[in-house]
Amino acid sequence: MTQRINVAKHVPEIYRHFFSVEKLLHDSGLPTATLELVKLRASQINGCAYCVDMHSRDMKKAGESDERLWMVAAWREATVFTPEERAALALTEEATRLADREAVPDAVWQQAAEYYSEEQLAVLVVAIAMINTWNRINVAARVTPGA
């Protein structure tokens, strides 16, 4: 598949701001593993090969186990994630699949609120929104792994 457009080349100022948001997310105090799990799961749902590849590799470099990487797609049945991570993954799925239902169910939100402060929940919401934005840009532009 050939890349359609290099979006960063044509709107570098927008990308600069996106990367500033990413830095703020990583500096927020939310565990990096949680942020990366969120990014990987949303990217799997959205079919963004570029992001699945990048976040899997980033997680591996950070010391993530192969087992946890393999299990992200089946996290509900997997036993390798903490309750906090499971709540973040559930929130990620609901917020990523907005077209499939009316809204994020209260039960999913309440489960996440059991483990994360309001500030952390806000960071999670922004992180989910950002990865969905990245996925949509990369899928529309046909950015492929290694590009």
Could you explain how this protein is built, in words?
With 147 residues, this protein is mainly alpha-helical. Helices cover 69% and strands 0% of the residues. The chain has eight helices and no strands. It has helices spanning 7-10, 12-26, 32-46, 49-61, 66-71, 83-96, 106-115, 118-141. Helix 3 (32-46) packs parallel to helix 8 (118-141) and helix 6 runs antiparallel to helix 7 (106-115). It is globular, with a radius of gyration of 15 Å. The N and C termini lie close together (11 Å). 29% of the residues are buried.
Order of helices and strands: HHHHHHHH
Quaternary assembly? single chain
Structural class computed from helices and strand pairing = mainly alpha
Broad shape:
globular
Radius of gyration: 15 Å
Ranges with pLDDT <50 over ≥5 residues? none
Number of strands: 0
Helical proportion? 55-70%
- Helical run tally: 8
Note the main sheet.
none
Strand content: under 5%
- Rounded mean pLDDT is 96
User: What is the CA–CA distance across the termini?
Assistant: 11 Å
